[in-house]
């Protein structure tokens, strides 16, 4: 994070020395709070923020998983001067069902690790090695807070399209999910029962 002195320098450069420069940057989601707490200069904030670009998490754009994986596999094959490995249907399904708390970086690491250790040119779901340690994030689908579990169950079902997929996203067994659905009165199609 830029301290106030560095913020002043950047502001001066953008306002006076190079007014026609375009800057693309990423920011902590707490940046607005920092402006209100006066730890980040508001004038710099508004210079850097003429357009917001929201990049959705990978779990919300599962259609991007296969093209990204193919890109990583192609790049890996070129760098190692090997045949390009391909994902079979089971691997694609497993990749699409994974919640990807680490987004594209986690996908890249998973695909490259698998390509490196794969003995064949076809990668299946059994070959994939998903990280067993995940950060505890508020937006994870893990069931931890009873008051939010119902929403997470419905979200997991809508995201995966099946109760089997929802159980996998939630990290619980299908039997446990059935019990949770009964407890929270969730219907077969993911709708709250009255």
List the helices and strands and how they pair.
Elements: H1 4-17, H2 31-36, H3 42-48, H4 65-80, E1 86-87, H5 89-97, H6 103-117, E2 122-123, H7 146-160, H8 163-170, H9 174-184
Parallel strand pairs: 1-2
Your description of this structure?
The protein is an all-alpha fold and 194 residues long. It folds into 3 domains: 4-48, no CATH class; 58-127, Helicase, Ruva Protein, domain 3; 146-184. The chain contains 9 helices and 2 strands, in the order ααααβααβααα. It has helices at 4-17, 31-36, 42-48, 65-80, 89-97, 103-117, 146-160, 163-170, 174-184, and strands at 86-87, 122-123. Strands 1-2 form a two-stranded parallel ribbon. The longest helix has 16 residues, at 65-80.
Outline of the structure:
The protein has 194 residues and is mainly alpha-helical.
Helix content: 40-55%
Give me the CATH fold name of the largest domain.
Helicase, Ruva Protein, domain 3
Number of strands: 2
Structural domain tally = 3
**Biggest sheet features:** 2 strands, parallel
* Beginning-to-end CA distance, first to last residue: 49 Å
Q: Enumerate the spans where pLDDT stays under 50 for 5 or more consecutive residues.
A: 135-139
Number of distinct helices: 9
Categorize the overall geometry: flat
Order of helices and strands: HHHHEHHEHHH
Mean pLDDT: 82
Q: What is the C-level CATH assignment of the largest domain?
A: Mainly Alpha
Oligomer designation: single chain
Strand proportion, as a percent range, falls in under 5%
Structural class: mainly alpha
CATH architecture of the largest domain: Orthogonal Bundle
């Amino acid at each position: 994070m830029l301290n106030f002195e560095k913020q002043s320098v950047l502001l001066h450069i953008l306002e006076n020395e190079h007014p026609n420069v375009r800057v693309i940057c990423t920011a902590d989601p707490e940046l607005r709070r920092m402006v209100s707490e006066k730890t980040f200069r508001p004038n710099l904030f508004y210079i850097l923020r003429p357009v917001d670009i929201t990049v959705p998490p990978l779990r919300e754009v599962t259609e991007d998983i296969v093209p990204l994986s193919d890109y990583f596999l192609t790049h890996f094959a070129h760098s190692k001067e090997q045949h390009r490995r391909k994902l079979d249907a089971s691997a694609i399904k497993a990749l699409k069902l994974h919640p990807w708390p680490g987004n594209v970086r986690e996908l890249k690491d998973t695909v490259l690790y698998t390509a490196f250790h794969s003995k064949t040119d076809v990668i299946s779901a059994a070959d994939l090695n998903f990280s067993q340690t995940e950060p505890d994030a508020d937006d994870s689908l893990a069931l931890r807070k009873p008051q939010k579990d119902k929403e997470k169950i419905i979200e997991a079902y809508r995201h995966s399209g099946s109760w089997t997929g929802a159980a996998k996203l939630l990290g619980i067994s299908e039997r446990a999910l059935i019990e949770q659905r009964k407890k929270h009165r969730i219907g077969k199609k993911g709708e709250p029962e009255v």
